[in-house]
Specification:
InterPro entries: Beta_helix (IPR039448), GH (IPR017853), Glyco_hydro_29 (IPR000933), Glyco_hydro_29_N (IPR057739), PbH1 (IPR006626), Pectin_lyas_fold (IPR012334), Pectin_lyase_fold/virulence (IPR011050)
Number of strands: 54
Distance between the termini: 37 Å
Largest sheet: 20 strands, parallel
Enzyme class: hydrolase
EC number: 3.2.1.51
Protein name: alpha-L-fucosidase
Strand content: 25-35%
Family: Belongs to the glycosyl hydrolase 29 family.
Number of helices: 10
């Protein structure tokens, strides 16, 4: 054992104490927020003041009316909503509880409600259901003052109990309504009966905003007019919810019907400020990420109670289309192009006062290439955004994925769980998650948390690795090293890396540029393997990652290297029985759940799911991918595969067997098994493709791929095959071009390649521009529109069965339950085997 670097820096996180909450003075704005604009546009609405007082012909009461006196003959919510709609109204505000405390829903916390009355109809649910059905916006009114439960408002000791009661009731209301519609406004009333500091304003806000961020919250009269006499740090006066008196001729100013940072008022108690300079720590700034860029240590991230927060963004949960392209950013005639400039249609970007720390992210050209780059300026007159960096493919417009969103703007720090980095000032601003935060952590360490190098028979078991900026566990030149039963999460980069990475020299961009070998990084591994197909990462032999849970990582789950392609020497490294998900928090394109390269490695019994890009990307030879359950990957991208490889016909001998591909997005060009740009020589058998994307199988011009005993279920197309080398891909097979180069690099006409893959030695003997030797044998096609898209002569099809009738599933909705013993498939497809359905997927408990 030469060297063992056990960098057990698992606690490389900063436990940051929460700042003492403060309250800011009301500051009006000259512009309404987006949601205030939505509220203004709604204009005309119906206010429904209905409850127990209705049956006593009074507006207010004190909670003394017997609950049974609320006794409507019928609640016709359909009529209410239709009346509002027919009158041209855009929304309804329904009184959920007035000052007397009677609740129009079945509340667990009081008997003074409809469930105990003469009509048990849940009015809140009935109206919410009708609003959804008839397309009406819904808001709720709730009285803070409750004369039934909290009549003695002077009793300060009762505040805690009553405030808890209120927040639980608000949760109940959200539980009821969110099944049907979003609450766009929440009106609170009755706050004047006691000093403002005694109301749980922050709790009210978080309870609602954590579930409905767009909901406008308003409080009638002032709240917080008086300072808290029990808090020596409280300001003389807290913020107001209504403006001071105004005179005719004063300019219009917008005060909130809502208190969020995107709106005119910000209660400072909601925002935490962490001063890294004061604590003599480095706050690492954001940097460019995306296709063709190296995978590197992330910026400083922050976590609350073990959950990663996200950089503040606009729009919060969507993207906007790229407008007119003024400058694409692509080089012309060999000259470096200016940075991209593009247009926008929305009003919001014109309101941003500073772009000092602003970034944008999105798919700016191709749907498989994400980018995040900085912004230099915004031209609000011409509505143009001037970026400050290049991308590999520049900017385009017109395709559905040509969209962007803004990041790291203080003005967009408007929802729970967001943060903004101001590295120049050494400060991070954080909008906490709803509820009390017990622990804050920030990522500091740039290198791996654990590095194991030049040693053998090391076992790491039962450890949680988290809060690093790059790699969780790193291995190099190891033998029989085992990572077992570990949790690897909240990393800025990849969870585990087996083998060296590379770093580029200078300012190279693009996936076709390589780098120099470097330990303890991933870097530009993708570009290096593309340029130098024989690159040996020195990943060692017989190393394993077993029974591990890897999630909430920034740039892929596992990078699995090992083996020598020049000599076809296998490594025997493996990933087995692991659960890998949510692995692209920072870098998306070509950062798969598992990257595999080299020779003779294995991925077995893994669950891989919930990611915008690929599950498995591999390069090299004689790998095995087996018994994996892969779902909901490639959810965001175009032209990607759940399992992907390509553009190198020397990458042969690979096996994909007994995997379950299901629920892959058909929105763009998404494939389950993707043989790209002339990929050859794969054995694919015993797999299940159930709603597996728009093209479950794609063979892009390659040869000698064998599909046997697979099950295809419920898809418009099962197999796509094309002759791209005859068309747009012809450049790849020209003499001296990339295919020729790669075959010459492995010396394909001589051992070991000529003996391991005899058909490869004859690659150029026939017209290689047409796909040939692709065999589709003994497969089931159940509820498939077209078995093949492409010319049938490019495939050898036999002993297959296409049917719209149940072939004998135990449960057709759950193919993993397998076939009945007497299933028809065993009669219709000669030699169809009993597949190991019960072994598919990870055995770890969820």
């Amino acid at each position: 054992m030469k060297k063992l670097l056990l960098l057990f820096l698992f606690l490389c996180s900063l436990e940051v104490a929460q700042a003492q909450p403060g309250i800011s003075t009301a500051i009006p704005s000259e512009k309404p927020s987006k949601y205030q604009k939505d509220q203004i546009k709604r204009k005309y609405g119906m206010f429904i003041h209905f409850g127990i007082n209705t049956f006593h012909d009074v507006e207010w009461s004190d909670g003394s009316f017997p609950v049974e006196t609320y006794a409507p003959a019928e609640i016709d919510a359909c009529q209410w909503v239709k009346t509002a709609k027919d009158a041209g109204m855009k929304y309804i505000i329904l009184v959920a509880k007035h000052h007397e405390g009677f609740c129009l829903w079945d509340s667990k916390y009081t008997d003074y409600d409809v469930a105990s009355s003469g009509n048990k109809t849940n009015v809140i649910e009935a109206v919410a259901r009708e609003c959804k059905r008839q397309g009406m916006k819904l808001g709720l009114y709730y009285s803070l003052w409750d004369r039934k439960v909290n009549a003695d408002v002077d009793n300060v000791e009762s505040d805690r109990k009553y405030n808890t009661y209120m927040l639980k009731q608000l949760d109940e209301l959200m539980d009821i309504t969110e099944k049907y519609t979003k609450i766009v406004e929440f009106w609170f009333d009755g706050s004047w009966v006691k000093p403002g500091y005694r109301w749980p304003v922050e709790g009210i806000y978080r309870t609602i905003k954590s579930r409905e961020p767009q909901c406008q919250i308003g409080i009638n009269w002032t709240i917080g007019e008086d300072a808290d006499p029990h808090n020596p740090n409280a300001p003389e006066k807290s913020y107001k919810i209504i403006p001071e008196e105004r005179k005719e001729g004063d300019p219009i100013r917008y005060f909130p019907s809502d208190f969020r940072l995107g709106d005119p008022l910000l209660p400072a108690s909601l925002i935490r400020e962490f001063d890294f300079k004061k604590n003599r720590m480095e706050l690492v700034a954001l940097h460019a990420t995306g296709f063709g860029r190296p995978s590197q240590a992330a910026w400083t991230e922050i976590f609350a109670d073990g959950q990663p927060l996200r950089i503040a963004r606009w729009p919060n949960d969507s993207t906007v289309m790229i407008g007119k392209i003024q400058e694409s950013g692509m080089a012309k005639e060999g000259k470096e192009a200016p940075f991209p400039v593009f247009g926008y249609q929305e009003e919001r970007p014109s309101s941003w006062k500073s772009v000092e720390n602003m970034w944008i992210s999105g798919y700016f050209a191709h749907g498989y290439a994400d980018d995040m780059i900085c912004v230099e300026s915004i031209d609000t007159i011409h509505k143009m955004i001037h970026t400050g960096q290049h991308t590999v493919y520049g900017f385009m417009t017109g395709a559905p994925w040509h969209q962007w969103f803004a990041l790291n703007l203080l003005e967009e720090l408007d929802g729970p769980g967001e943060y903004v980095i101001d590295a120049g000032r050494g400060k991070m601003y954080v909008y906490p998650l709803a509820g009390k935060m017990e622990n804050w952590s920030v990522s500091l360490l740039e290198g791996p948390l654990l590095a194991i190098e030049h040693c053998k028979d090391v076992k790491v078991q039962g450890i949680t690795f988290e809060y690093g900026r790059h790699i969780g566990v790193y291995m190099e030149n190891t033998h029989r090293a085992l990572i077992k039963n570990c949790i690897i999460r909240n990393m800025g980069g990849v969870g585990v890396s087996i083998g060296k990475g590379t770093l580029k020299a200078g300012n190279q961009r693009g996936h076709e540029s390589g780098g120099n070998p470097v330990s303890r990084v991933v870097g530009d591994l993708m570009g290096t393997v593309y340029q130098n197909i024989l690159f040996n990462r020195e990943g060692g032999t017989e190393n394993g990652v077993v029974d591990c849970h890897i999630y909430n990582v920034g740039a892929g789950g596992i990078s699995l290297g090992g083996g020598d392609r020049a000599s076809l020497t296998p490594a025997g490294n493996y990933v087995e029985n692991c659960r890998i998900h949510d692995y692209n928090r920072i870098e998306k394109s070509y950062r798969p759940g598992i990257w595999m390269d080299g020779v003779g490695n294995r991925i077995s019994k893994c669950d891989i799911y919930d990611a915008p890009s690929m599950a498995i990307l591999f390069h090299g030879n004689n790998h095995v991918i087996e018994l994996c359950d892969i779902t909901n990957v490639c959810s965001e991208v175009d032209d990607q595969g759940a399992v992907y490889y390509g553009r190198d016909p020397s990458e042969q001998g690979n096996v994909i067997r007994y995997c379950y591909f299901h629920e892959l997005s058909p929105r763009h060009r998404v494939t389950a098994t993707y043989h790209d740009d002339g990929a050859c020589g794969a054995e694919v058998y015993g797999n299940i493709y159930h709603k597996a994307g728009s093209l479950p199988v794609l063979i892009g011009g390659g040869h000698n791929n064998h599909y046997r005993h697979n099950i295809f279920i419920d898809s418009p197309v099962a197999i796509h095959i094309d002759a791209r080398m005859q068309g747009w891909g012809k450049f790849m097979i020209e003499k001296g071009a990339i295919i020729d180069q790669r075959l010459q690099t492995v010396n394909y006409k001589n051992p070991p390649y000529s003996t391991a893959y005899p058909l490869l030695a004859a690659y150029w003997d026939n017209d290689t521009s047409y796909p040939k030797g692709n065999v589709i044998e003994g497969n089931l096609f159940y509820k498939i529109g077209n078995v093949v898209r492409g010319q049938s002569e490019w495939l050898e099809l036999y002993n297959n069965w296409a049917t719209g009738s149940d072939p004998g599933f135990v449960d057709a909705a759950d193919p993993l339950k397998g076939f009945k013993d007497d299933a028809l498939i065993y009669q219709r497809i000669n030699g169809f085997p009993r597949l190991p359905f019960e072994k598919i997927g990870c055995d770890l408990s969820k």
